[in-house]
Amino acid sequence: MRLDFKGKYLGCLIGSALGDAIGELAFRFPDRNRLESAVKQAKILHYTDDTAMALGLAESLAERGLLDQEHLGRIFHRNFFNEPWRGYAAGPPTVFKAVQGTGISFVEAARRLFGGTGSFGNGAAMRVAPLGLFFHDSPNLYEQAAASAAVTHAHPLGRDGAAVQALAVAQALKLDPEKPFPLEDFLKDLLAGARTQEMREKLQILRDLLVSAVPAGEAARTLGRSVAVHESLPFALFAFLSHPRAYPDCLWCAVLNGGDRDTLGAMAGAVSGAYLGLAAIPPEWQEKLENREVIERAALALLKRTAP
User: Fold this and answer.
1) Among 127, 195, 131, 112, which residue's Cα sits nearest to residue 157?
2) Is the pTM of this model over 0.85?
3) Of the chain's two ends, which shows fewer C-beta atoms within 10 Å, N or C?
4) Distance CA 150, CA 161 (A)
5) pLDDT of 5-36, one tens digit each?
């Protein structure tokens, strides 16, 4: 089997960024007809902090050739300083301020959030796609993804969610889209990879919903659509796994059922793009994506470091 890894790396990062950008539009245009019209009329599809942080992670991995938490934290901090208007939640800026003010590490600052429990938001999962690509053949994928999350999300759920998303990206990357999609094996591997009870329970519910072919709206209500990672990542995976053959259908499912639309789109779009490749993403969407060339260069830099 010879896969188009170049197309898949590009598809993953472009697919995630478009999911983010179109998901952000979906807050204002929450039904499909209006959203499709808005996308068609837009001159530029602007992404949010989801993509900005993914680009930071990609840059750090390509530059260092490994996961360096402090290097990653400094890049996140620099990018936030340069573009604070991207839509960051409160957690990362609080971490950056603590590091700047006290000199503690990014990981220690993240541990101190929320009374010392750390964050279990989806902010680490939304950005982890480059790491799923970079470590796709590594037996330490889980640990690397969890470590990347710990820079801002120290709670076990926050780290587990990022690792499960990275595993989904890595699995999708290695699958041949011209063959039947191995749904049961894909879900089995995700369940085996998850390490928190909350995430395992949601992934089992996800499997049951897919087997029962429930409508997307019902799945969204059951799995959740909030900023908590165990209440958003499972539905993003539902969007992909219920539409593995079509990137646009996956994206519409992810962003048109309420909740944290941009992050749902980013997570679902990353997995879909990693599976189907760049050619499956509408060219007219690609052409409108903000900083598309920057995102493409980031994908190719990762590929150069991790080329099979």
Assistant:
1) 195
2) yes
3) N
4) 11
5) 999 999 999 999 999 999 999 999 999 999 99
Residue 4 Cα distances to 1, 8, 190, 278, angstroms? 10, 6, 23, 10
Question: Whose CA is closest to 88, among 44, 42, 119?
Answer: 119
Backbone phi, psi, residue 289, to 5°: -70, 130
Cα 117 → chain centroid: 23
Residue 67: partners with Cβ closer than 8 Å, 6 or more residues away:
60, 61, 131, 144, 147, 148
In sequence order, the β-bridge partners of residue 228 are: 121
Q: Is residue 300 predicted with pLDDT exceeding 80? A: yes
Instruction: Over range 122-140, report the average pLDDT.
Output: 97
Distance CA(133)–CA(53), nearest Å, equals 15
pLDDT, tens digit, 9 for 90 and up, residues 46-73: 999 999 999 999 999 999 999 999 999 9
Diameter of the chain measured on Cα atoms: 53
pLDDT band at 1 (very low <50, low <70, confident <90, very high): low
Q: Nearest-CA neighbor of 156 among 188, 220, 110?
A: 110
**Of 213, 212, 211, 265, nearest in space to 235 by CA:** 265
Count the neighbouring beta carbons within 10 Å of the beta carbon of residue 308. 9
Q: Please give the full DSSP string across 186-218, using - where no structure is assigned.
A: HHHHHHHH--SHHHHHHHHHHHHHHHHT--HHH
For residue 2, is pLDDT > 90?
Answer: no
